[in-house]
Amino acid sequence: MSGDLLSPHMRVFAIAVLLVFLGWVMSLVRHHRLSLRDSLLWLISTLAALAVAVFPRLLVWTARALQIEVPANALFTLSFLYVLVNLLSITLAVSSGSARVRRLTQECALLRAELERLKAQPAPPAGGGGR
Amino acid sequence: MPDPLRVLIIVPAFNEARNLPGLLRALREVSPRSDICVVDDGSTDDTARVAREGGATVLRCPVNLGIGGAVQAGYLWARDHGYDAAVQIDGDGQHDPAYIAGAIRPIAEGRADLVIGSRFLVEGGFRSTFLRRAGIRYLSGFLRLRCGARTTDPTSGFRAAGRKAIELFSGWYPSDYPEPEAIAFATRNHLRLLEVPVHMTERLHGRSTINLWRSFYYLIKVSFALVLLPRRPDLLALNPPPPERAG
Fold this sequence. Notes:
The structure holds two protein chains of two kinds.
Chain A: H1 2-5, H2 8-30, H3 36-54, H4 57-65, H5 71-120
Helix pairs in contact in A: 2-3, 3-5, 4-5
Chain B: E1 7-13, H1 20-30, E2 35-40, H2 47-53, E3 57-60, H3 66-80, E4 85-88, H4 100-108, E5 114-118, H5 130-147, E6 159-161, H6 163-171, H7 179-188, E7 193-197, H8 212-227
Helix pairs in contact in B: 3-6, 5-7, 5-8
């Protein structure tokens, strides 16, 4: 029954691709090129995709629950969601990153101005500081 | 009037080395007791040097932030140094500095927290094209409907802010065509808004950054911003006031 849904060839191919992808993400994390925090959504969603490839029955159940006639369409829907969710999480990260860059740039400009101001003042007496 | 306010004039500038000397001279003339703070928004020309020679404090942004980020840097400086009022005036010389006193007065008298300089309250001067005026009218109607802010010139970059507004804008300031959104944000946070006349001229040197496409983007972006306008108290946490850096 699940054999009609995904041919064995297809399943092996999907599992292989997902495993390679999973390995890639994990190696990126291990080499500190991707933070675990940012990769978590990828890892979880890829594991979910892997579960569907290994147990196609999950897909049939999902299709039935969503009242989708052809389980393959449930597959497309799910994969679209998978991309959408990951994309939104990236956009979120970019947004919060640029807000931080903006704030840091401002802080940098403020500190530069303070520094210039200090340099322009005559040097304080040696050993001074406390009052 | 009680004690005169400590006023900071914020001049956001991106590659304005040619317009700045004249502007700074005029600023010194009309308000010799105010401090001037030029925010050099990652310029590639001599803006910073020219500003320093003109007697201004220069905030040099290592990367270009856009007008919103630059202006906010100025408000942060005003907050950190305890200014009572901050006046925002464009670095391209299109706002007449003679109107600064009129913008500060309502703040000094405690009648307003945020003062907008409107080109439509004076006779003559630069009023922009018909299409752009239509856009401005649309934005001012939208602002009034959305949050009850009454202003005839919501895109004007000539503003005066009192302590409350300085504090608020230090905490959060919109980026990317920030002017109308800043008005909405201020009204939402119960600041009192007032409009005063300002005479505008066309910029002297260089080209304005706004063309037809950008005007269109401006309207779309600001419309969305106004529709989605949240109360945003959470965002204030991004820029907590410094523990001690007044001076």
